[in-house]
Amino acid sequence: MRSKPKWLFPVLALLPVLGLYACLRVYPIAETLRLSLFKWNIISRRKPFVGFDNFVELMSDPLFLEAIFNTTIVAFGVLVITIPVGLALAALINSRQGLRRSGFYETSIFLPHVVSLVPAAMAWKWIFDARLGPLNALIGWFGIPAQSWLFDPALSLVCLIVLCSWQSIGYAVLIFLVGLKNVPEALYEAARLDGASSFQAFRYVAIPLLKPVMLYVSVITLISSYNIYAQAFVLASDVQGAPGHLVRVLVLDMLENSFRNYRVGYAAAEAVVLLVIVLVLTGAQFRLFRDRSRA
Fold first, then answer.
1. pLDDT digits 0-9 by tens, 211-249
2. In 3-state terms, what secondary structure has residue 263?
3. Which domains does the chain have, with CATH numbers?
């Protein structure tokens, strides 16, 4: 009797998972690509094929361009803060002085990442409040005048970057800690024998070995930052809960075009542009870290 090939069982075992992944991931992406080529209006029966007209219109839409600009500023701002701060905190926790209470520090730093987005954004909205917020009271002690944090476009971008960084740093610290704990102690000892200080050992021993971890954290942070919605929505909403658009981000613009303006095809085109941006930036990060590893 002919024996079955060895690959048959793992393939059959993976088929349900692959089928579920295709339904939840591949099909929505393909359907979004299809919808972006139509003038798809929810309340209209006629949905004509328009080709790339939606994409052409996007390039001259000031609201879309503003959303792309704001989202890019926030995403790279969060990335620039999260990577160095997360790595520094992970190094402090992993040090000999921090190991005694590492569990407490890890929990405290990781907690913002698991807190629900809306309550966290509401808490930060109170912190940034121009009249009652503690932030203005704090800077007042140093003689700095009170700021309208959430009513100034530039300051509101800063507030959004601070909020998103606060939520993403905990995850970065956890991943960096895993990488630091896997660095062999013998490499540190060899560096010390060569006369390297603790900082030099960390700089020339740990960081090169952490490049794959840094690549992962960088990619995840940038993707999640480009998909922000709840934070911007809550910070810009008024007391009665009415939505605001002081900081217009890309996902917020997509949802507004879909469910308020009923332009599903146009919003699908925005989603395709977001997908392309994420793919290009992810590829650029892989290329950057690969070139540095070779160097």
1. 999 999 999 999 999 999 888 888 877 544 444 556 789
2. strand
3. 50-294 (1.10.3720.10)
